[in-house]
Amino acid sequence: MQIIKIENLKSQVEGQDILKGIDLTINSGEIHVIMGPNGAGKSTLANVLMGHPAHEVTDGSVSFLGKDLLDMKVDERAKSGLFLSFQYPQEVPGVTVENFIRTAKKEVSGIMPMMTHFNKEIKGRLSELSMDEKYLDRYLNVGFSGGEKKKNEILQMAVLNPKLAILDETDSGLDIDAIRVVYETVQKLSSENNAILVITHYNKILNYIKPDFVHVLVDGKIVKSGDLSLAEEIERSGYEVFKAEKTSEAVRA
Q1: pLDDT tens digits along 101-138
Q2: What gap in Å lies between CA 236 and CA 245, rounded to an integer?
Q3: Alpha carbon distance 122, 134 (integer Å)
Q4: pLDDT grade for 244, boundaries at 50, 70 and 90
Q5: Assign residue 159 a region: left if phi > 0, alpha if psi is -120 to 50, beta otherwise?
Q6: What are the angstrom distances between the C-alpha of 238 and each of 110, 132, 241, 243, 244?
Q7: pTM of the full predicted structure?
Q8: Of 5, 192, 198, 219, whose CA is between 20 and 30 Å from 30?
Q9: How many domains does the chain have?
C-alpha cells in the first residue's frame, strides 16, 4: 500500500527557495533514509510535510494515504497517522509525560485509552528504551538530557503507532549507546502496516537500522537513490561527488 507520494515539492522560507523539486514515494513496510550535507533541506522536508507555518509550499503535491496532505491542518495530519520526531524537542512545563502521551493517543484514536491497558503498554515501551518509569511523572522534556528527550520522542512514536514516522536527525546529540537503543527500537517498530522516514547525516545509525532505500538530498533536490550501498559510498567519499553531480545537472539545464 502506498503511504505517501511526493511530487515536485517546492518550498520557500521568507522568499528563499529551499526545496527545489522533491520526488519521493514510500510504501507500507518500507524504511527510507535521507542523507545529505548541512543546509541541504532535509529538516525542511520534514517540517513541510508536518505543516510548519514558516514554510510556504510553492509547487508540487503530496498524497498521504490517498488524501491531499497539503490541504490538511497540522492536527489533521497527526490524526491521519503522520508523526514527526523533532530534532530539538521542546520542554512543556506543567504537563507530565504520561498525560501528554495518553491525551495524544486519545486524539489520534478518538478514544481515551483504558488506564490499565495504557499503563501496561507504556511501561513495556519504557523498558525497551531503557527508561525508568519515573519519567512518566516528570514534565515533558523539562530537565531531560538530549538523549532522554530523543528517547521520549521514540516512546511517543511507539505508543501512537503512526502510519508514517518521520525521524528528523533523532541521532543528533546522542552518545553511541543511546543511538543503539533508539534505532534498534525503531527497527522493531517497523511493520507491514507502517513506514518510516529517517533523516540523518550520521552513517553509524545504519549499524542498527536497515533501510530499504537510501536517498541523497543536495541543495533542495534528491540527486540519487539506492540501497544500503549508497550510504557506504557516502561514508567513503562524502557528499562532494553528489554536489558536483548537482552542479553538472544545473549547467546542462
Answers
A1: 999 999 998 888 888 999 999 999 999 999 999 999 99
A2: 17
A3: 12
A4: low
A5: alpha
A6: 46, 38, 7, 10, 11
A7: 0.93
A8: 219
A9: 1
CATH for 58: 3.40.50.300
Cell 546522542 belongs to 174
Nine cell digits for residue 53: 507555518
Q: To which residue does cell 543503539 refer? A: 180
Q: Which residue has cell 528527550? A: 149
The H or E element containing residue 57 is strand 56-64
Q: Domain range for residue 66?
A: 2-252
d(CA 55, CA 96): 30
Instruction: Summarize pLDDT for 31-79 with one digit per residue, the tens.
Output: 999 999 988 999 999 999 999 999 999 999 999 999 999 999 999 999 9
Output the nine-digit C-alpha cell for 79.
490524526
